[in-house]
UniProtKB/TrEMBL annotation:
Pathway given in the UniProt record: Isoprenoid biosynthesis; isopentenyl diphosphate biosynthesis via DXP pathway; isopentenyl diphosphate from 1-deoxy-D-xylulose 5-phosphate: step 5/6
Organism: Streptomyces camponoticapitis
Domain of life: Bacteria
Pfam families, per database record: GcpE, GcpE_C
Protein purpose: Converts 2C-methyl-D-erythritol 2,4-cyclodiphosphate (ME-2,4cPP) into 1-hydroxy-2-methyl-2-(E)-butenyl 4-diphosphate.
Listed EC numbers: 1.17.7.3
Binding site for [4Fe-4S] cluster: C275, C278, C310, E317
Family label: Belongs to the IspG family.
Broad EC category: oxidoreductase
Domain IspG C-terminal: 271-357
Keyword 4Fe-4S: yes
Protein name, UniProt field: 4-hydroxy-3-methylbut-2-en-1-yl diphosphate synthase (flavodoxin)
Cofactor: [4Fe-4S] cluster
Length: 367
């Protein structure tokens, strides 16, 4: 017989220090948050705020903006004040922009120890400024910009090298009794990235920001991020995530949200259970699933909708869902909460499902 396996659940979240990034808690006491980064010129305040508004609407919890020039630094006070979600300034080469970002009221600052060469000398001042304004710092190590000293010693950007760089930088802050730190050790290869975060998780209790850096265009980047985040979240590792795609940032938020929803780390909203179709299908399942997804996008209630191509698995899945259709013979049997409520012609399936979804949403709102 089949051996009985213990029920599989995610490991409990790794216990971390707790940070507050603006209004968002980051650490084991808070839900895993979603981040993204604007692609506008930060100095273009209106364009940046517009993109932040789009990210906010798509469910982004925290946004990061690049700060490569004085004009960008000058824009930070306005952006930090007007953004609906906490803004993190991303600083690479100039320690003076770190001070500017803290002064501007940014919710946190990301520094890259590999790129800020003179950074070590200024840690004391940065720690003081950050403590005065309760501004957490992310130490963001990237394989592509690893400290040359570590690169020379380790030969390449190994997991150990990434972790050593991050912990070294964190220790400099700790010397000044500053611990409001979160850490990332990003690599484009999920195998290296996962190992780096596992090592890091064992070596410190700072909250961790997960990311597969330069993950690639949407399709590849989505898969790399999902695989890597899945491997870590399964172990309880990861407190905030950013999916990096060569695609508009709103797509990053959608992917990150879907990854977290898949693990029940954030409430599921719309979930389409659609079959892959096969030789038995009596309806164009792809088209139907796409139309139903498009018609129901943005539903704010948890709703599982089954879209099935025939009567083999159709009624079973449709019955398990909140709402569903099992197609056959040019018709669709519409299920609501397990009951067949009607049978409609194929051309009416999408609109009927949307209608029924709206009814469920209204009922949920009145409960
Ligand atoms: Fe094939 Fe029907 Fe299963 Fe869809 S539900 S994959 S059409 S058997």
């Amino acid at each position: 017989g089949v051996p009985e396996l213990p029920p599989r659940t995610l490991a409990p979240r790794r216990t971390t220090r707790q940070l507050t990034v603006g209004t968002v808690g980051v650490g084991s006491e808070s839900p895993v948050s979603v981040q993204s980064m604007t692609t506008t010129l930060t100095a273009d305040i209106n364009a940046t705020l517009q993109q932040i508004a789009e990210l906010t609407a798509s469910g982004c919890d925290i946004v990061r903006v690049a700060c490569p020039s004085q004009d960008d630094a000058d824009a930070l006070p306005d952006i930090a004040r007007k953004s609906q979600i906490p803004v993190i300034a991303d600083i690479h080469f100039q320690p003076r922009y770190v001070f500017a970002a803290i002064e501007a009221g940014c919710a946190a600052v990301r520094v890259n120890p590999g790129n800020i060469r003179k950074f070590d000398d200024q840690v004391k001042e940065i720690a003081h400024a950050a403590r005065d304004r309760s501004t957490p710092i992310r130490i963001g190590v990237n394989a592509g910009s690893l400290d040359p000293r570590l690169l020379a010693r380790h030969g390449s950007a190994t997991p150990e090298a990434l972790v050593e760089s991050a912990l070294w930088e964190a220790s400099l802050f700790a010397e000044h009794d500053f611990h409001d730190i979160k850490i990332s050790v990003k690599h484009h290869d999920p195998v290296v990235m996962v190992r780096a975060y596992e090592l890091l998780a064992e070596s410190c209790d700072y909250p961790l920001h997960l990311g597969v850096t330069e993950a690639g265009p949407a399709f590849q980047g989505t898969i790399k991020s999902a695989v890597a985040f899945g491997a870590l979240l399964r172990q309880g590792i990861g407190d905030t995530v950013r999916v990096s795609l060569s695609a508009p940032p709103v797509e990053e938020v959608k992917v990150a949200t879907q990854i977290l929803q898949s693990f029940n780390l954030r409430p599921r909203k719309l979930e389409i259970v659609s079959c892959p179709s096969c030789g038995r299908a009596q309806v164009d399942v792809y088209k139907l699933a796409e139309q139903v997804t498009a018609g129901l996008e943005g539903m704010e209630i948890p709703l599982r909708v089954a879209v099935m191509g025939c009567v083999v698995n159709g009624p079973g899945e449709a019955r398990e869902a909140d709402l569903g259709v099992a197609s056959g013979n040019g018709k669709g049997q519409i299920f609501v909460k397990g009951e067949v409520i009607k049978t409609v012609p194929e051309s009416k399936i999408v609109e009927t499902l949307i209608e029924e979804a709206m009814k469920i949403a209204e009922e949920t709102a009145h409960k």
